[in-house]
């Protein structure tokens, strides 16, 4: 058993309380590799932003859970080396799908876990979530739960259709499970194809897809039921067109990729939404930068020469999200 407190990590409780009060959101960035982690920590340290490092089940399988844990521990030291005196870094399991997985992360030094039982019938979701909460709270590890189902297709996280969270269920769910935050479904989804072209309109000038707005009425109704309760948005990449264009113009194929417009995320961040999950945008930045190097220098074969530019572009992306979208800069001085 390793306590996250010994590793210099923090849970989400105080982060979220401050974010709701201050009208901003904490960035939750997924990582699988060293370059992503370096970019996240540099961006957070330079902007003095609290940050949640997210590890999915797929990331654990890809990178090895022991290595990831030590990377997160190293990240705290790296942040201090960069001059961030009091780093506010949370290590979070993203989309945990079983009690055993959540328990293993709690035991392994994670400061926060998500139990995603949103695909189960309501009572089963409550029972499994409560079991995880009861275990995690013994160690002061915070728990994110999910109610409602996101649409979208991704490796470990997939669903063909979305079901918005029902506001009439949230009080019962939060009270009976004791969860610390609630991920909701209001129209976001995972991946780089958040909407089909049929669900969008087209900008007559550019021909680009314009996605439908998020269901802010559902969010408002949830906040009315659970005043001041931390709300989480998954699937919140905005799929920047410049990265999609860089990829497509260098031989890639991402036709009609579309995300959540940043002004909608800005609006959400000012509400009780205090954690915004971003993974796909970082994948796009990485891929765009690597493709550009290969297109311009086909003879390049030193991974540092293409992973370096990928890391720089991801850092730029993370800083942009922190400063211009979530507003978390300067909140962890
Ligand atoms: O929400 C899921 C995250 O984007 C992680 O995706 O399961 O492919 O690692 P992954
Ligand atoms: P995106 O695919 O929109 O980046 O969402 C990531 C996410 O929700 C991780 O849990
Ligand atoms: Zn997610």
Record keyword descriptors for this entry.
333 residues; alpha/beta; eight-stranded parallel beta barrel; two-stranded antiparallel sheet; 12 helices; 12 strands; 15% strand; globular; binds glyceraldehyde-3-phosphate; binds 1,3-dihydroxyacetonephosphate; binds zinc ion
Topology readout:
Blueprint: H1 13-22, E1 26-30, H2 34-47, E2 51-56, H3 57-63, H4 65-81, E3 89-96, H5 99-107, E4 112-115, H6 122-137, E5 142-147, E6 152-153, E7 158-159, H7 170-177, E8 181-184, E9 201-202, E10 209-210, H8 216-225, E11 231-233, H9 241-248, H10 262-269, E12 273-278, H11 280-296, H12 303-326
Parallel strand pairs: 1-2, 1-12, 2-3, 3-4, 4-5, 5-8, 8-11, 11-12
Antiparallel strand pairs: 6-7, 9-10
This protein binds glyceraldehyde-3-phosphate (G3H), 1,3-dihydroxyacetonephosphate and zinc ion.
Describe the structure.
This protein has helices at residues 13-22, 34-47, 57-63, 65-81, 99-107, 122-137, 170-177, 216-225, 241-248, 262-269, 280-296, 303-326; strands at residues 26-30, 51-56, 89-96, 112-115, 142-147, 152-153, 158-159, 181-184, 201-202, 209-210, 231-233, 273-278. It is built from twelve helices and twelve strands. It is globular and about 55 Å long. Helix 2 packs parallel to helix 12, helix 5 (99-107) packs parallel to helix 6 and helix 11 runs antiparallel to helix 12. Strand 3 (89-96), helix 5 (99-107) and strand 4 (112-115) form a beta-alpha-beta unit. It has 333 residues and is an alpha/beta fold. Helix content is 44%, strand content 15%. The chain has an eight-stranded parallel beta barrel with strand order 1-2-3-4-5-8-11-12, surrounded by ten helices. The chain starts with 12 loop residues before the first helix and ends in a 7-residue tail after the last helix. 1,3-dihydroxyacetonephosphate (13P) is lined by residues 30, 94-95, 190-191, 234-237, 277-281.
């Amino acid at each position: 058993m390793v306590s996250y407190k010994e590793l210099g990590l923090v849970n989400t409780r105080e982060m979220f309380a401050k974010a709701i009060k201050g009208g901003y959101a904490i960035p939750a960035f997924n990582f699988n590799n060293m370059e992503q982690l370096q970019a996240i920590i540099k961006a957070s340290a330079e902007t003095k932003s609290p940050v949640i490092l997210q590890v999915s089940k797929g990331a654990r399988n890809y990178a090895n859970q022991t290595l990831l844990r030590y990377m997160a521990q190293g990240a705290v030291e790296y942040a201090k080396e960069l001059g961030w005196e009091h780093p506010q870094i949370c290590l979070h399991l993203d989309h945990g799908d079983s009690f055993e997985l959540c328990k293993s992360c709690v035991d392994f030094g994670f400061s926060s876990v998500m139990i995603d039982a949103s695909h189960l019938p309501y009572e089963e979701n409550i029972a499994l979530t409560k079991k995880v909460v009861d275990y995690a709270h013994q160690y002061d590890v915070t728990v994110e739960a999910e109610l409602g189902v996101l649409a979208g297709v991704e490796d470990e996280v997939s669903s063909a259709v979305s079901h918005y969270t029902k506001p009439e269920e949230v009080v019962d769910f939060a009270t009976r499970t004791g969860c610390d935050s609630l991920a909701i479904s209001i129209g976001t989804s995972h991946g780089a194809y958040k909407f089909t072209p049929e669900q969008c309109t087209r900008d007559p000038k550019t021909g680009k897809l314009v996605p439908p707005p998020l269901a802010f009425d559902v969010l408002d109704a949830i906040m009315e039921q659970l005043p001041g309760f931390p709300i989480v948005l998954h699937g919140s990449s905005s799929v920047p067109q410049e990265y999609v264009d860089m990829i497509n113009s260098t031989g890639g194929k991402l036709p009609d990729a579309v995300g959540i417009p940043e002004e909608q995320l800005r609006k959400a961040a000012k509400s009780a939404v205090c954690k915004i999950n971003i993974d796909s945008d970082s994948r796009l930045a990485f891929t765009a930068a690597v493709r550009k190097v290969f297109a311009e220098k086909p003879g390049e074969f030193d991974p540092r020469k293409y992973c370096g530019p990928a890391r720089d572009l991801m850092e730029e992306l993370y800083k942009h999200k922190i400063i211009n979208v979530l507003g978390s800069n300067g909140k962890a001085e």
